[in-house]
């Protein structure tokens, strides 16, 4: 590690950890979505919306602190980028749940459960990783595994699309609805990878 001539602000680390913990809460709500009925899904959507608002509050707190801090733990642009990409994850998960409710989806297609399980594992890893930004240590396995999970999510997404378009069980409107949902879940997986790539970039710069 490079020798630091000045102390670094530590409040950012707490905010990033809070954002990641909130994302983990969101991923658990996605798991609850599986197998829930219409009434249960509406209630899950309300809790997901509250979690998304909490994520927004944390993101705004990072930006506020960034604008008022002279000393930061690492590059200001990287702090902004990491906060924004963590926020993207929560936005995509909330959007997916909202679409399921708005479109009144009776049954999610086979494979969506695999998408959500991948997202939940990525959320667990992200929540475990954020506190390590204080020391910039023990993070390599995190971004390697999240990248592996994103590759897995890509494969699941492709199989889901093939199922929707070739199964013959769905009409055109239903295909459009379901495709939008599985595409948003794939965007969430991509956003997890972008967070991991940002963390890797930060560690490389700071080492």
Automatic annotation (TrEMBL):
InterPro entries attached to this UniProt entry: PhoU-like_sf, Put_Phosphate_transp_reg, UPF0111_domain
Pfam families: PhoU_div
Family to which this protein belongs: Belongs to the UPF0111 family.
Name of protein: DUF47 family protein
Species annotation: Streptomyces calidiresistens
